[in-house]
Amino acid sequence: MSLWQEIREDVQAALERDPAARSWLEVVLFYPGFHARLFHRLAHALHRHGVPLLPRGIMHLARFLTGIEIHPGAKIGRRFFIDHGMGVVIGETAEIGDDVTLYQGVTLGGTSTLRVKRHPTLERGVVVGAGAKVIGAVTIGENSQIGAGSVVVTNVPPNATVVGVPGHIVAFRDTSNNVIHRLPDPEWERINELDRKVAELQQLVQHLEEHVRQLHDGHHAAAQQPRE
Predict the structure, then answer these.
(1) Which of 5, 89, 102, 167 is the most exposed place for a label (fewest CB within 10 A)?
(2) What pTM value is reported for the model?
(3) CB-based contacts of 109, cutoff 8 Å, min separation 6
């Protein structure tokens, strides 16, 4: 596939995934995620050929212009879309498959200081919500969704939905019939149990207050009666 075809695919991806996008010209002129991807294509090509300094300089300029930081060594597939984009960070050994979507504030970060694979791999169709952090050389299976603000430090199987800190799986999508199967969530169940306990205590307190008020009214009425 030619470079021009890949760029057209990027524009089409933005039009399909962002309801606010009105035209291809709007995407080309005003979408920082699209601009960052253009810069990265050039920087990544130079990085692969061993050109020193210049790839980092290109992406440094891209960060200044777009608010998106992508290391020249990161591998990015086709139809990649960054919505809004401010604060997105993609590390050197990150690998991103086709049709992946990232929202603002996403970090694909590393945990090791060694020169090894230390950043995440996102397979085809992954969606990462705003402010989510995917840390380490973990793999996020295809078509999985990472909820906004989640912190993921372990592998995620395909078609899963992950939320929380640390991230845990709360649902799977059945690809045969496109039905979402929700899993038990111990934390949510615990919160619901605490809510029930609080409601029971509130009812008990109200009952005791009513009982005390009745006793008080009874004593007061008895004190008001004239003595013989």
Answers:
(1) 5
(2) 0.80
(3) 89, 91, 119, 133, 134, 135, 136
